[in-house]
């Protein structure tokens, strides 16, 4: 299953937001992948549980990413997390 989400974190997926997201992704038993979307096309996906992989996407505030996961509930939970400003909101 796939879902596209806009990054709400004011600093994008950098440092704290990337770490919080990767930690949440790692807590799921299913594999979760994340890819940055540019001009409507998803790039190469990375392991969402990898802080360095998530930061390496270079996803900024307002940009879109595509999440891929076999479990709909996990997908919904992680998408909701990205829709928050993780740099300000306690996760």
From TrEMBL:
UniProt xrefs under CDD domains: PTS-HPr_like
Signal peptide range in chain numbering: 1-24
Pfam families, sorted: PTS-HPr
GO cellular component: cytoplasm
Purpose of the protein: General (non sugar-specific) component of the phosphoenolpyruvate-dependent sugar phosphotransferase system (sugar PTS). This major carbohydrate active-transport system catalyzes the phosphorylation of incoming sugar substrates concomitantly with their translocation across the cell membrane. The phosphoryl group from phosphoenolpyruvate (PEP) is transferred to the phosphoryl carrier protein HPr by enzyme I. Phospho-HPr then transfers it to the PTS EIIA domain.
Every HPr domain range: 1-89
PROSITE patterns, per database record: PTS_HPR_DOM, PTS_HPR_HIS
UniProtKB keywords: Cytoplasm, Phosphotransferase system, Signal
Protein name, UniProt field: Phosphocarrier protein HPr
Location relative to the cell: Cytoplasm
Principal location: cytoplasm
GO biological process: phosphoenolpyruvate-dependent sugar phosphotransferase system
Domain of life: Bacteria
């Amino acid at each position: 299953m796939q879902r596209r989400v806009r990054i709400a974190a004011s600093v994008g997926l950098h440092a704290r937001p990337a770490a919080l997201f990767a930690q949440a992704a790692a807590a799921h038993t299913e594999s979760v992948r994340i890819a940055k979307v540019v001009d409507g096309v998803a790039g190469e996906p990375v392991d969402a549980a990898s802080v360095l992989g998530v930061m390496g996407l270079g996803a900024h505030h307002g940009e879109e990413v595509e999440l891929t996961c076999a479990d709909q509930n996990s997908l919904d939970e992680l998408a909701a997390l990205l829709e928050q400003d993780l740099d300000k909101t306690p996760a």
